[in-house]
Amino acid sequence: MLDHYFKQLNLDLKKQGIATPQLIVDEAALKQNIQHVQIRLAHATHLKARLVVKSLASLDLLKLLSAQINTQRFMVFHQPHIISILENFAEADILLGKPMPAQAVRHFFEQHAAWSDANIQWLVDTQQRVQQYLEIAQTYSRCLKLNIEIDVGLHRGGVQSTQQLIEILKLIERNPQYLKLSGLMGYDAHVTKIPAIIKKPELAYHGSQQTYAHYQQLIQKQFPTLWNEALCFNGGGSPTFSLHTTASVCNDLSFGSMLLKPSDFDSDFLQALQPALWIAAPVLKVLPFTQLPSMSLLDKLPHKCKALFIYGGYWLADYVYPDQCHTHALYGRSSNQELVNVPKNCDIQVDDFVFLRPTQSEAIIPQFSELKLYRTHAFETWQTFSE
Ligand SMILES: Cc1ncc(COP(=O)(O)O)c(C=O)c1O
C-alpha cells in the first residue's frame, strides 16, 4: 500500500519537474484527520478548539483548519507569528503558549500600536513576570489580559503551589485598570510520556485534572471579583486530545501536531489519525556500495547495499521509502548531501526521490519555505511562516 503510494508520488513529483527537497502534506490523510477532530469535538461541546500555530506553521494550512474546525482561537509561541495571525484572522483570539520575555511584549506595544487592543492572552508564570507586565501596561496605558501557566505535572515551570497562585492573583486584583485575569493554561504532555509501568496515562491524566480543578476552585472561592464564566481554561495538546474530548475540567483545548501526525505522535491515543507529512528528497548519485574514506580494504568485501547521495538530509525524520533505506552508522550524517543505503536490488535511479517521515512538525516546517499539498497527480503550494 505505502509502496504504491510512494511510487506514484515519485512519478508525480518528477512529472511536475520538481527537483529539490519538498515537504509534502497528503490531502486525503489531512482530510481524514480533520474529520476525526470534527467528530470528537462535536461530542465534546464543553471544549473550544485552539490551533497550535508552531506545529502547523503555514497560513494556508491554518486558514483551511480554521474554516474546517470552525475556530479562530490560536496558541502562539513566537512573537512574529502574533502579527501574522492578527492580520489574517479578523476574530483571532490568541493565547501565548509560553511566557514571552517582558522585552518582547514591550516591543510588541512599541512597534505594533495599531494592534494594542487585539485579543491576546499573555501567558504569565511568576509574580515577577506579572510585575514586569504591569509596568508595560502602565507605560502604554493598556489593560493586559493575563493567562496564568499552572504546573499540572509536566514540571516545565508555571505555578506550582496555592501560595504562588494567590500572590499572582492578588497582584492582578490590586491593578484592575492594567491587568485582567483571562484564565489558566495547564499543558499535560507528561500524561502519555511517563512509562506506563510507573504511571498509567489515565491515572496521570486524572491527577493533572485534579490539580487543574483545585486551582480553578481557588479562583472561584477566594477571588470572586476575578472569576467569570468567560475565563479561558486551556489544556491539551495532541497527546491528550482523546482524553480531554472524553472528559475535561478545561473549556479550551489546544492541539496541532496530530493533524499532520509526525512519528512522535504515534500513540495508542492517536491511533485513529493518519500520517500526513512527508519529506521528499531527490537522489543525486547512485553508487554500487558505500566506500568509507581511508578504509578501501573493506571495498573488496561483499556488499548488501547500494549507496545513494541525496539532495539534503539530516532532518528530524526517518527514512521510510524505498523499503529498508537507512543511514550509515560509520559514514556519518550530512544536511547537504546525505548518504543513504538501500538494498542492492532496489530499483532506484538518479533523479528519483527518497521519502522520510518527520518525527515532529514544529522543527521541520520552518526548514522549508513552502508546503506542497498533494492530491494524486497534483500539487498545491502553500507558504510557510518565513520567521
Ligand atoms: C502549552 C502547549 N500546549 C499545547 C501544545 C500542543 O501542541 P501539539 O498539539 O502540536 O503537540 C504544546 C506543544 O508544545 C504546548 O507547549
TrEMBL record:
MF terms in GO: D-serine ammonia-lyase activity
Domain of life of the source: Bacteria
InterPro entries: Ala_racemase_N, D-amino_acid_metab_enzyme, PLP-binding_barrel
Official protein name in the record: Alanine racemase N-terminal domain-containing protein
Name of a matching Pfam family: Ala_racemase_N
Stretches assigned to the Alanine racemase N-terminal domain: 25-259
GO annotation (BP), single: D-serine catabolic process
PANTHER family associated with the record: D-SERINE DEHYDRATASE, ZGC:162816-RELATED
